[in-house]
Design a protein that fits this description.
single chain; alpha+beta
């Protein structure tokens, strides 16, 4: 480090990777907490003889060597630092004043100072007080991730065949020639490195990644009894909830279930980009859901939640932070917490290149939120907040109100989503077979469906038959009259 380089470093002031202490006549011993925090985090720069803002005060010449000797001796004292760590401290002259400088690298081990573990964030050094925080530190330092934990006692019968079927179904859509389509379940797991040898016993077994992705519910409960995802809708009842889904099944089921819950409670937001038409809701919240599943630290009992409010969607999950603080496109440093799990979703074509999901969230959220940016906070708890445009939930209330006004609430409507009702009416803009309409509403009995939904609409002059002279024709279709289009259009032109 040259004097000019050190001067430039000081000009930027303190930060997550820089700590300054005046230490003019005697060593500022608080510096050891920063050294410990830097070793445990991503490394950083230590400067003695400077103020917090980078102002140079210098160190008394007769104190320089004594302070450096003390630093070296204390860093090698196991009564203070565990494990000890050798650092090189140097004296540098800047503007005629002497300073002590040291670059602290990131250590591969977890260090404590006076039996206390420290970590670093944008606000400075902080003690790790809870066992969970300390455990996270050791997990981060370990080369072996939680998802790589091996369970030799569990065999292929602990996994759910349906989960593999769903995986192959999605893979086939993205790549009909993908080798996983023709592989056996065990071959898929070996290809994805989800069968491994336990380093402690030397026995082979399923990894936690395999169990989380494809395991039966009771298998997952046996290895992770605290695992579940709490999915809540709090649009009207913010104290309790309007609707709740507790997911305790594998991640294949979790992904589908959460996406279905989203479609049930949030309106469609169609968007055209180039020649492609897609749902902004699905594009954004699919990435949020995948973040929740892929980046969670599964060793923690901290509750994982996905909550829909009237003006935002918020997710929280326990995390082993790579960096602390708010994440935006300028500070984004893609880092997969569970690469084995991420790889399976990548093979399915749901996850693209590293970091692309976060970029999509930032790109498309303003289009659904009235210009507001998403907020992603990486702390011990990883929190994502997606603001929703004011009044977006009122759309759903109007659809429900219209559904009731038309006399279509006959029990089935209680479980219908806003999307289903909208798609039902949108389909009627052109002649459509009753069988297709039944599929949209999830109805199987043709006669009851016609009497409950088609006949009431026809009686009100909102729907007519394409072949009125052949009411029982197998090719019969139905469509909205001009009156029907005006009634539907009154709900909102986006529908």
């Amino acid at each position: 480090m040259t004097g000019e380089e050190l001067k430039s470093l000081l000009a930027h002031g303190e930060g997550v990777d820089a700590e300054f202490k005046e230490s003019t006549h005697q060593l500022a011993r608080k510096i050891y907490e920063s050294i410990c925090a830097f070793l445990n985090r991503k490394g950083g720069h230590i400067v003695l003889g400077a103020k917090d803002d980078g102002g140079i005060v210098g160190i008394a010449p007769d104190s320089i060597q004594e302070q450096m000797d003390t630093l070296v001796k204390d860093m090698n004292n196991p009564q203070l630092f565990r494990p000890t760590y050798y650092l090189n401290f140097e004296s540098i002259e800047v503007d005629g004043k002497l300073l002590i400088y040291c670059h602290v690298p990131e250590s591969t081990q977890a260090h404590s100072y006076k039996n206390v573990y420290y970590d670093r964030n944008r606000d400075g050094d902080f003690e790790l007080r809870s066992t969970e925080q300390i455990a996270n530190l050791f997990i981060r330092k370990s080369k072996r991730k939680t998802e790589e934990t091996v369970y030799p006692a569990l065999g292929m019968d602990a996994l759910e065949e349906e989960a593999f079927d769903f995986m192959r179904q999605i893979v086939r859509v993205d790549n009909a020639e993908h080798p996983w389509i023709s592989m056996s379940n065990e071959e898929v797991l070996r290809s994805g490195q989800m069968i491994a040898v336990d380093p402690e016993t030397g026995k082979e077994g399923l990894t936690l990644a395999a169990i989380l992705l494809f395991g039966k519910r009771n298998t997952i409960a046996s290895v992770l009894p605290m695992y579940f995802i709490d999915v809540l809708c709090r649009i009207h009842d913010t104290e309790l909830y309007d609707d709740r889904l507790q997911v305790k099944e594998n991640l294949m089921v979790a992904y589908r279930s959460i996406m279905e819950f989203i479609k049930k409670h949030l309106p469609e937001k169609p968007y055209i980009e180039g020649m492609q038409r897609f749902s902004l809701r699905d594009r954004i919240l699919r990435e949020v859901t995948l973040n929740l599943l892929i980046h969670r630290e599964y060793s923690s009992s901290y509750p994982t939640t996905f909550t829909i409010f009237s003006d935002k969607v918020v997710t929280e999950n326990w995390n082993v932070p790579y960096v602390y603080g708010k994440i935006d496109l300028t500070t984004l440093k893609p880092h997969r917490k569970n690469p084995l799990i991420a790889n399976v979703f990548s093979q399915m074509g749901i996850v693209e290149e590293l970091g692309s999901g976060t970029r999509k969230i930032f790109k498309y959220t303003p289009l659904i939120s009235g210009g507001k940016e998403p907020m992603i906070e990486e702390e011990d708890v990883y929190k994502v907040t997606i603001p929703m445009e004011a009044g977006v939930q009122n759309e759903k209330l109007e659809w429900t109100k219209l559904w009731d006004q038309l006399g279509l609430s006959k029990g089935l409507s209680k479980g219908l989503s806003n999307e289903q009702i909208g798609l039902f009416f949108e389909s009627l803009m052109k002649p459509v077979a009753a069988s297709k309409l039944r599929v949209i509403l999830g109805y199987t009995n043709a006669t009851k469906f016609k009497n409950s939904y088609i006949v009431p609409l026809m009686e009100q002059g909102l729907v007519v038959m394409s072949q009125p002279d052949k009411p029982n024709s197998p090719t019969q279709k139905y469509y909205l009259t001009e009156k029907g289009k005006r009634v539907i259009g009154s709900v909102g032109e986006e529908k």
